[in-house]
Amino acid sequence: MRFASESDHPANNGLKIARDLIEPIKKKYPSLSYADLWTLAGVVAVEEMGGPKIPWRPGRTDVVDGSTCTPDGRLPDAGKGPSHVRDVFGRMGFNDQEMVALIGAHALGRCHTDRSGFDGPWTHSPITFSNYFYINLIEKHWTPKSWKGPVQFEDEKKELMMLPADLALTKDPEFRKWVEIYAKDEELWFKDFASAFSKLLELGVQFPKQEVSPSGLRGILAKLGF
Q1: Spatial distance between the Cα atoms of 60 and 164, rounded to a whole number of angstroms
Q2: E strand or H helix at 110
Q3: In what order do the strands lie in the sheet with 161-162?
Q4: How far, in Å, CA of 86 to CA of 216, rounded?
Q5: 67 in helix, strand or coil?
Q6: 184 lies in the same domain as 149
Q7: pTM: predicted TM-score of the whole model, two decimal places
């Protein structure tokens, strides 16, 4: 993401805003790798918005150039269905339960037409980490939005939206099973999300023996000046 060969991928539009916000911390602590800094920022953001404490440990290193960046098209396509979701996440070693748990993070934020082309929030509380993505997915009636943008869906009051890949979770029996479970049990989803997200952040990393527990995040933030 530090190099144009990856940061310029359409699926990464808008992430420069977040990277720029974190850059002063990197300048203050240059020995901290970008990989550790950005993953720590994600973990802390989830916790600060009311989500679970996610196990995190330092030890990621930064590459020197963009020669090892992944090709475009490796991230999930919001306009596709269950088989695509499985192809993308399955390649990284996630099972169906973990896939549904990770996608539940759509409870946060919203889509912007100048970034993804889509528009609108998934929930009425887009800065609160909650299981309302799942609740809305199965309890609201979703119809195609009439507009000039890409195919997306809106609820009865035209206040919220869902992407085709979101609704795909309700069409596939195994995916839907976990959507219904997490809609009823936020505590279980928090636990499963924390596990799956930690796994995502550690893919392909060779760590030293040191580990930072969730309770240690506060100490790290204090050292970083927060």
Answers
A1: 34
A2: strand 110-111
A3: 143-144, 153-154, 161-162
A4: 34
A5: helix
A6: yes
A7: 0.89
Number of helical H runs and strand E runs in the chain? 10, 5
Domain identity same for 100 and 186:
yes
Residue 77 lies in a domain: no
The whole-number pLDDT of residue 209 equals 64
CATH number of the domain to which 100 belongs: 1.10.420.10
What pLDDT, in 10s, does the model give residues 74-93? 888 999 999 999 999 999 99
Is the domain of 60 the same as that of 11? yes
Do residues 160 and 120 make contact, with C-beta atoms less than 8 angstroms apart? yes
Sign of CA dihedral 77, 83, 87, 88: positive
Which parts of the chain have pLDDT scores under 50? none
Residue type, 2: R
Domain that holds residue 142: 82-197
Q: What share of the chain is helix, strand, coil (3-state, %, to 5)?
A: 50, 5, 45
